[in-house]
Amino acid sequence: MIGEAARLLSDWSTVDTWIVLIAALAAMACALPGVYLLLRRQSMLGDALSHTVLPGIVLAFLASQSLRSVGWLDSRTLHAAQHAILFGGALISGLLTALLTQWVQRRGRVEASAALGVVYTSLFALGLLLLRLWADNVHIDPDCVLFGAVENIVISAEQRASVAWFTATVLGLNLLLMLLFYKELRISTFDPALATSLGIPAQWMQLGLVAVTAATLVTAFEIVGSILVVAMLIVPAATARLCTDRLGTMIAMSLAVAAASAVLGHAAALTLPALIFQPLGFDEVRDANTAGMMAVAAGGLLVLAALLSPRYGWISRALHQMRLSIRIAAEDLLGRLYRQAEEQSRPQEAEVIDHLGQPLLIRWLAAQGLKRKGYVRRVQGHWLLTDRGHQAAARVVRAHRLWESYLAAHQQELPDDQLHFSAHRAEHFIDRNLQAELAKELQRPAQDPHGRDIPGENGNGGS
Amino acid sequence: MSEPTRPATGEHSAISPLSIHDLTVAYHRRPVLWDIDYDAPAGKLVAIVGPNGSGKTTLIKACLELVPRASGEVRFFGQPYRQVRHRVGYVPQRESVDWEFPINALQVVEMGLYRQIGWFRRIRKQHREQAMEALKRVGMAEFATRQISQLSGGQQQRVFLARALVQDADIYLMDEPFVGVDAATERAIVQLLRELRARGKTALVVHHDLQTVPEYFDHVLLLNMRLVAQGPVSEVFTEENLRRTYGGKLALLDRVGQKMVQGGGA
Amino acid sequence: MSGRRVGCLSHGAGVHTRTMQRPRLLALAAVLAVIIGGALLVVLSQPTTAWAGPRSASALLAQVEPVPAAAPHMPPAAVPTATLWQRFVRAITLRDYHTRVVLLGTLVLGIASGVVGTFMLLRKRALIGDVVGHAALPGVCLAFLLQQIWQPGSERSLPMLIAGAWLAALAGAGCTVALRRWTRIRDDAAQAVVLSVFFGAGVVLLSIAQRIPTGSAAGLQNWIYGQAGLMLASDVELITAAAILGLVSCGLLFKEFSLLAFDEKFAAAQGWPVLLLDLLLMGLVVMVAVIGLQAVGLLLVVALLILPPAAARFWTDHLLRMTLLAGAIGGVTAFLGVLPSAMLARWATGPSIVLVGGMVFGFSLLFGTQRGLLPRYWLQREVRRRVGRADLLRAMYELIEPALPDDAPQVTSLAGVPVRRGQLVQKRSWKARRVGRLIAEAQRRGLIDAGPADQVRLTAEGAEAAFQAARQHRLWELFLMQAADVGLTQVDRSADRIEHFLEPDEIDELERRLARQYPELAQPEPTMPQSPHALPEEKS
Known about the structure:
Chain A is mostly helical and 463 residues long.
């Protein structure tokens, strides 16, 4: 399978490199404003904007046509300025979307997502009708809107370089703006009221963000298509959000995710379809749509992050939980052996210990771990503590008894056995520092509330 | 291997309307409640008192299985909550719903009956009358057809109370019913609580105003992540206990708790 | 509880509207049912071969993304040269079979999605239609591909494609819920993620389907994003079936769904299976969306799920009424949107309906009786004026009062006593401009007439009004003092302004209640109580 994929990828040409390069640049440019949209809970704005720029473009086109027909613009300047005019129209209708949504939401007391839905469907319908009625001669290729023209662009050597530079410039501009307004954006995203009271107009920051988003969308549309753009606005930011709590890291990560999805997406588009469908007898299927695959790749990265993110991932949490269970089982075993030894040498009131329902496998793994570390030995079917094991066990028991003493001193309500169970859970989480603090606060007690000795810091009996 | 964990807490534990054993709850990787062990006395008004973030709301929600428990067991009248839902009335915090919702006061109260009415069945006249009756008991009959956003905070709270009342439960869990209400509502609620007690019902009320605890309640439960003290107001509601509840002195408890939850052990 | 009685006083309106509304609601529901039933009948009674124009390839994605070429739009082909009026008559009398089909299909869809959309709006998931509409694409393509793998070269099967779309859309909706529940991604971001990733996957699968040389993939895109203008009778049947299922479910589970939307936690505490209910509701939305998607296109489905409920919200505060109204608005919107498109060749049906929906929303936003902007504005303005007028008259009364004979101030002795504007300005620490405006307004109403220089005088009518205003104020103040411990300012939001809204019978009630303490109030002739506090200290 892998060999097959490698063979398919060996056809990788400069054209592919250019596609990936341009797509990655565009994706990164989109990911930047996306981070803030995500944090402001306006993620759907990207999808809405990608629709509402249409009436702006159509109106701008109609306006420029009528300017020419009344003779204010000659065809040559019009041709030169066409791009800028359409861009301006798109930008204006993007801003209008944001403003209208806000107005409907505040004055009409309509819920935010509904307000957005109302505004964007209406504006888009308006654009479609206008297009149908008066601008039928505008050539807008639906494939181009969805998928962009990147696959055509890269064929021409000079065009691809200039497009790449252009996209890089957009990315650079976005990056520059984000850096310049880093703290303003952060504060107005986190607490708009506070920002405004500090003299940073949150409203203008919001509009600026929308403007940047709309501008990026419009420029990226033409190159990579709307699917990729809408996906790259939010998915990388969401992926980064799963992995980090810091804004700076989040921005950097979302850039990395955007670029990685471009690379992975294109590679997958070249390999996966063939790998899956050719064995099924469809030899014609050699590749698939790149833009779509990049969106899917971004989604895949998001799922990976949800599973594996060190702090919040499901799998990493499950692994962590298992390691923890093993540790707890090991410490419980140590504690039990310690107490057994204690009872033999000096009979005391027995402490009752349970396993907190740990499964057999966990207990077995724990015991094996302890044996490997040389803490316990097995003699005639019984576990025995080694010297090192004795020290370690003493620390566990010390934590337990210190904690009992602490609780008893502060929480008269707990019945004795309850005290014990609470300590039994807590003992695994009281490290040396905490032990020292507990001991200090309790003025170095020699015995716990049940009258048992509290082992000393270094594991020798008595403090 | 373990010894039976239930401490024998005296004669009423068998019929206690609410008994909580060894309850631990963690929220967003922070421990909120630790090892709560409590038996509510039947037919009494109990105030749940503690500083902000001490887990009062969480205690109620954990009892009603609205938040996952890390460990422990809760029983109403000796049975798990699922089996005795109809005997438990719940008054959530006022902020928990969208008051702009297109619905009037009477309809909110009717919601308390929905479970009783059952799947697919329509609300009938008798249900409406029951709901109206509950509204009358909280002094809100005149506002029955008011849209709920047009009610004042106190009136909204009374609508919520009526919604719980209409269930005719045997124990009521109320989350901060006195917050942000006017004096009239406060008195109406107290009146209502006494009525409930007179009819042998039990109420656990999250309360934040220490001054009124002795006046309004029979029992008190002092909470600060762990159960600090509980019992009759006259015995337990002492300066010493309050200091221990509000003193925040147990910084170490908090730290160990955080370690435990972050470690995933709780 | 005196607080309770205060409430009673300030809100005379009691329980009376309920019973009157039921017949009307039933009637509305019946009308909706008749329309849907009629739709079925009319469509089924027509030969399906009457107009079965091919779905043009250039119509591809027209509803999602702009398309240049005018899709050969549905024909009033028979009468190309007819005048606008003739075409209007033709359209409104439903003479063209195709107009009938499109009209009924969109009408029924409008009703169904209006009703289902209401719950989505109230659950703050208005954009879910957008999400599931996009998420359906991979399902359709996958269903097609599986079919091709199973039986190479076979024809597309409609039920399979619909099933695929439905499953994928449901999976998409489920993903948003799962993401929100088990990760730190919030609702809006989860929606955006699912939308774009699913759609991306759909595009990938579509491109693969198109590479398979069976030819039957050619129309796949059209199938996915149908155009309202090209609807077929079979589509209408599907839509009607889905609509009936949706409406019946909503009717049966109305109480459950409303509880879920209002207070999920309470529903859970009560023992309702919240997750199941949520899934059921979601399943209905997905069903309506998917069926609508292939018939009328994504844009129209999204819009019909949002616009009618959002518009209905402005007209009522009653959930059942809102739901039915949303259905009705959905139907009306569809009807009004189809008409022009039946008349004008290049007027696309889908966008036309959405635009009409937008206009209906805008109209409701402005004029809606419950939450509309203008009614709210007028109400506030009216209140401000009334309060201002009463304040002005009371101020005049209080300025005149010291000069009146001591025994009992009489209404008649108030009229004609000149008061300087300056005094009024000073008295209430108002701005001179505001006083001027208030005086001008009172003058227009004949309460005040301008004397020489900057003096104003009460007319006979004004004297009566001023007397009443001052009396009401003092009665209320006395009442407040008597019941001060009630904490009245909190009893109702408008408590501090309540004196201006006392109805005559409430004033009687006040008098009766205060009579014990102030016997002079019990006299048959209205008398003016003494102000309980020294007047110069008064604040407005």
